[in-house]
Every structure is written in C-alpha cells, then in structure tokens.
UniProtKB/TrEMBL annotation, chain A:
Family per record: Belongs to the aldehyde dehydrogenase family.
UniProt key word Lipid metabolism: no
Top-level lineage group: Bacteria
PROSITE patterns per UniProt: ALDEHYDE_DEHYDR_CYS (PS00070), ALDEHYDE_DEHYDR_GLU (PS00687)
Keyword annotations of the record: Oxidoreductase
An annotated Gene Ontology molecular function: oxidoreductase activity, acting on the aldehyde or oxo group of donors, NAD or NADP as acceptor
Entry keyword Oxidoreductase: yes
Active site: 263
Aldehyde dehydrogenase domain span: 28-494
Protein name per UniProt: Aldehyde dehydrogenase
Automatic annotation (TrEMBL), chain B:
Protein name: DUF779 domain-containing protein
InterPro entries: DUF779
Organism ancestry: Bacteria, Bacillati, Actinomycetota, Actinomycetes, Micrococcales
Protein's organism: Cryobacterium algoritolerans
Length: 507, 140
C-alpha cells in the first residue's frame, strides 16, 4: 500500500501552480478579459488552483496560432509526426506517477486507476496512432489503360475538440492522438470541472510540438466552448458529453457545413446467462468481478455497466454473492493505492446521483446495497463521496434508462435469450454492453444482436488502443480508439490523371 | 439591478396534447436564478439532456439558441415574472424519444452549487440547474 502525499505538501510529486493561464502558440497566455475561476478538488471539496476563464477572444487567439501552425504541420512527413507522438508517449511514461496524482486530485478517481489504466493507456494511444499513421497508405485505381485515380489523405487543417471530465487526460488523448497523427492543428477546451491535469501534461509535452499545433483554452461551455464549436475557422468539431449539447454542437456544425463527431454516453447492459454459474470456478469469479465493475471510476464512465441483467435461475445466488463483493469495495482517500472507490468529480454530479437514488426509491426499486452519500471524515469530509449502490427493479424505471454517472447499478432478471436482448435494446442509447456466458455461440449471437458499438464478451471495461469505440442510436456518431478515427480528421483528395495524349473527341 | 427573489414555485402550463396535468415546475431558487439570467441573456428556454457526463441536466439557453423540431415535446411553459408584471415565458423541451421513458415522472427544476458543463447559461455563476423527480399523480 502507498499513500501519495497531497499535492503541494512535503513529499508530494505535484505542486500545482497557483494559476493556470491558457496554452496558446507554445506558451502561457493570460485570458484577454483577465478573469479566472477556481478549480475545486472533489477529494476534499476545496479549491486548489485558479484557471483562466477563457472567452471568445481567447478562442480567436488560439485559432490564430493554430492557423499559423497548421500549414507547416500538415506537410510534415508521417515519419516526423509519428516520432513526435512517440516522444509524447515516452514523456507520459516517465512522469506517470506525477500525472496520476494530478489526475486524482483534479477528478477524484482512486489513484490505482490513473496509475494502471488512464496513463498507460494514454501513452499507448499515442504510440498506436504513431504506428497507424506510419502504416496508412493512400490508394490508387487503374481505371483504364491511361487513366489513374489516386487518393491521398490530407489533414483537415484546424480542428476543435471539447473534452469531458471523467477521464480528463485519457479522453483528451483519445481525440488528440488521431488529430495530431493526421496532421491537424488543434484548439482544445477541457471540461471546467477538471481543467488542470491536462495543463500539467502540456507543461511536460508542450515543447515537443511546434508552437500553435496544440492550443488549450480553459473556460465555461457557454463562454469558451460555444465560440469554439460555432467558429467558422474550424474544419471539424469533436465532442464527448450529453445529448443536448451534442445536438447543439451538431447544429453549429451544420451552420458551418463541417463534420462533427459526438460521443454522448449510454446505459450499458451487462448480461449474465445462467451457465456462468455452472461451476464455482475462476471464470465465475471473473464474472462476479465483471458485475462489480459498475463502480469503476465511481460509475463515471460513458460505458459503465450500469444495468445488470441476470438470468432467472441464477438471479438470487449470483446477486447475493455480487452484493457482498461490492460491499467489500474500499472507499477512501483517492491518493491511497488500496482505495477502490474515490470521489465523484463535482458537487453537481453528487447532487444528480442523489436525485436519481431518490427517484429510484420512489419508483419502487429495492435498495440491495448503499443508497447514501458518504462522509469520510477528517480532511476528506467536504469531498463528494457516494456509496456503491445496487437497485433491483425493472427496465422501465428511470434508473434503468438514464446514465446516472455514479456508482449506481440497476439490476433486473430475464427469462431467455430473446428477453435478454429485448431488455438490453430497450434503451435510447447504444454505446457499450457486456455478455457473460460459457457458451461461445450464445455469447457471439448476443454480441451481434445488441445494438451497441462495443460489446465486451466475458470481460468488461477494457479500452485497448486498436479496438474501435463509439455509439449506436443516440450514443453518437463516429469511432475513436482505432485507425478509423484517422478518417474523422482527414480529407480525401482524389487526383484523376489521364496519361493519354488523345483528345476526348466531344468538341 | 436584480429582480426580486421568488417566494413561490412556478408550475408549468399543460402543453402535451390530450393531457390534463402539468409535468414540470421551477423551485423558488430556480425562479430567482432565472430572473437574474433573463436580465443578462433575455428570453430563455430549457432542453432536457440525457446521456453521459452532465446528462440528465436541464440545459438553459437563450430562447431559440437550441433548435427544436417535431422530434421534441414541449413539456410545459413557465412564467417567471413577478405577480402583475409582464409575463416572462420559458419553454421546457425534451426529446420525444426521451419523453417516452420519462413520461411517468414529474420534473422540478432546482438549483445547486456546482460547475456544470455543457453550454447552459448558469454555469459561470457557480450554480447548476438540477432535475428533481417525483412520480406523476396519474402513475403513483
């Protein structure tokens, strides 16, 4: 067990600046209007740094820098850009613990997660896209003896990216790596709930990138996000968040006739067929763990397995064992490597979760575990902690239909295969799902029949670079985490070349 | 100049065709906050969000900023004006597909301290609109 020191105290790996300016053109730039807001740590509910409250004027400065940088960056060779991405990956690896402490303090997540998941995945993600761009070919077609069609990948130019707060560094990297690999310059706006950890990262990697290639403007959605998303000076906008802002982003994109990719979350079903309990073996243990993964990152994951569907014959036994397993989850100081459940990212997130627990009870769902806010006492007393909570109910309840984004699981039963698929698909969203069965045929069919972009079979919450990630239905448009994402950041240039000396003969 | 703080909730009009019960209301704090926001932004609207991150938050925009369509349901109209003053109507919208799953619940827009995301107009003030829910009487 290790307990990392609180940032700014003796022995800590991180001392935050008292104030973070915007990062524009390769340096710190004060916000034009001179305004700042406080970043609050969910670990203790206290402010720990001031952050630039960017506005349209700052977005314009960032766009100026990006437009100056884009032409040269877009013409660098894939070899050079891949080398840059690999150097960024090396710096992340070399500063893994420092970045993990910063991420935990900004977001509230238990530090074992950024140490073992967020940051190793982030560096690997840069390496994956370094490899992807190196190995990407254009294509050509010999249309006839003298006519050849060539297709080239070109960068879009300057793109905008708006980042969520649940994995502040990793979600930024999911968007940055393909955009940089493809040769674009970027203006990125972090979430206002978690604006600092990405600034700690840019401090480390800023000098690897040419000035202006990556610009970061902090601020509120209305004041900084909207001017970015609606700007006629971007050639693409990428967003992860909720549906109303997603629609607004698509609306702004339509006004500028530019592409948009939006990842808008889900309400992922985690389906356990009876045969998982055929033996009380290691696989059963793995399936039990797969159930408890709803509490990973305090449930603040777009693909959180927040609906568990248990087949009737194993419902009671599987659930009672899983409830006991969940009860043992250690909730505590997020900087302690033994902690398994940390803090919710913000006060309003905490309030939303409590309001969902309230409506769940009103709708008649049974609380099998938890259901309350937690006061961890001492320095952590002001932090935003919620008990891992398990409800039993039915799929028509609100707690089964909307992503609560908290450690709250809604459990129901199903009779047979058709019933399982019907319940899983009876939802607005289609981002993730899980299927657990010892029967490969059943698992395969279920995986294909569930309307979701990512179905984990006999595992959950793995996000390896290379596996395409994105939504069906109202979960959004586009794919990340795979070379397909390059296509969202590239224009296609077709050169249609005639090598014939003869006129067409039409005129 | 700030508008007088509200001492009463505001219940929305009945706008869903064929229904005879209201579906949405504003807490007193929400009314006071909205009166202040109206001074800064002019007429306002709500659209109920879903999905991840700040999903389930009621997003407040300058009226007309968010384009609604026939795939949205007008859940109610809320007049935040003090008694006797010119009406200040705020339309509250939800997508039709989301309404299907939410229709058994009555929504109260409240305000909590927080730092919401999205493009909602209240966020820079350090507060967030929050939905509290109860079962509609017709479903209870």
């Amino acid at each position: 067990m290790t307990v990392y020191s609180k940032p700014g105290t003796p022995g800590s790996l991180v001392t935050f600046k008292t104030r973070y300016e915007n990062w524009i053109n390769g340096g710190w730039v004060k916000p034009v209007k001179g305004q700042y807001f406080e970043d609050i740590s969910p670990v203790d509910g206290k402010p720990f740094a001031e952050v630039a409250r960017g506005t349209a004027e700052d977005i314009e400065l960032a766009l100026d820098a990006a437009h100056r940088a884009a032409p040269a960056w877009g013409k660098t060779s894939a070899t050079e850009r891949a080398a840059v991405l690999n150097r960024i990956a090396d710096v992340i690896d070399a500063n893994l613990e420092l970045l993990a402490v910063a991420e935990t303090w900004d977001n509230g997540k238990p530090i074992r997660e950024p140490l073992n998941a967020d940051l190793p995945l982030a560096s690997d993600h840069f390496r994956y896209f370094a490899a992807a761009i190196r190995s990407q070919d254009g294509d050509h077609a010999e249309l006839d003896n003298d006519t050849v069609s060539y297709q080239f990948h070109e960068p879009l130019g300057v793109v905008g990216q708006i980042i969520p707060w649940n994995f502040p560094i990793l979600m930024a990297v999911w968007k940055l790596a393909p955009a940089l690999a493809a040769g674009n310059a970027i203006v990125l706006k972090p979430a206002e709930q978690t604006p600092v950890s990405i600034m700690v990262l840019i401090e480390l990697i800023g000098d690897i990138l040419p000035p202006g290639v990556l610009n970061i403007v902090n601020g509120f959605g209305l004041e900084a996000g909207k001017p970015l998303a609606s700007s006629p000076r971007i050639r693409k906008i990428a967003f992860t968040g909720e549906t109303t802002t997603g629609r607004l982003i698509l609306q702004y994109a339509s006004a500028n006739i530019i592409p948009a990719t939006v990842e808008l979350g889900g309400k992922s079903a985690n389906i356990f067929f009876s045969d998982v309990a055929q033996e009380q073996d290691s696989f059963y243990d793995k399936a039990q763990e797969g159930f408890v993964l709803f509490a990973f990152n305090q449930g603040e994951v777009c693909t959180a397995p927040s609906r568990a569907l248990l087949q009737k014959p194993i419902y009671e036994s599987f659930l009672s064992t899983a409830v006991e397993r969940t009860r043992k989850a250690i909730q505590g100081n997020p900087l302690d490597t033994d902690t398994q459940v940390g803090a919710q990212a913000s006060n309003d997130q905490l309030e939303k979760i409590l309001s969902y627990i309230d409506i769940g009870k009103q709708e008649g769902a049974r609380v099998a575990l938890g259901g309350e806010r937690v006061d961890l006492g001492g320095d952590l007393s002001g932090g935003f902690y919620v008990e891992p909570t398990i409800f039993e109910g039915n799929n028509k309840m609100r707690i089964f239909q909307e992503e609560i984004f908290g450690p709250v699981l809604a459990v129901t039963s199903f009779t047979d295969y058709e019933d399982a698929i019907s319940i899983a698909n009876d939802n607005l969203y289609g981002l993730g799902a899980g299927v657990w069965s010892r029967n490969g045929n059943v698992a395969y069919r279920a995986g294909r029949d569930i309307q979701a972009g990512r179905v984990w079979i006999n595992n959950y919450h793995h996000y390896p670079a290379g596996a395409a990630f994105g939504g069906y239905k109202s979960s959004g448009i586009g794919r990340e985490n795979n070379k397909l994402a390059l296509g969202h950041y590239q224009q296609t240039k077709n050169l249609l070349v005639s090598y014939s000396e003869k006129p067409l003969g039409f005129f | 100049m700030s508008e007088p703080a509200s001492t009463a909730t505001v219940v929305g009009t009945i706008t869903v065709p064929g229904e005879n019960l209201p579906r949405v209301e504003l807490s007193t704090t929400a009314v006071s906050t909205l009166r202040e926001l109206w001074e800064d932004f002019g007429p306002l609207m709500f659209h109920q969000s879903g999905g991840c991150c700040d999903g389930s938050s009621p997003m407040c925009f300058p009226a007309g900023e968010f384009i609604t369509s026939d795939r949205d349901v007008l859940l109610g109209r809320l007049d935040i004006a003090p008694a006797g003053a010119e009406p200040q109507w705020i339309d509250f919208w939800i997508s039709a597909e989301q309404f299907e799953y939410w229709s058994h619940t009555f929504l109260t827009v409240d305000v909590v301290p927080g730092r919401g995301s999205g493009f909602s107009v209240e966020a820079p003030r350090g507060v967030r609109f929050l939905i509290r829910s109860r079962l509609m009487d017709s479903f209870a």
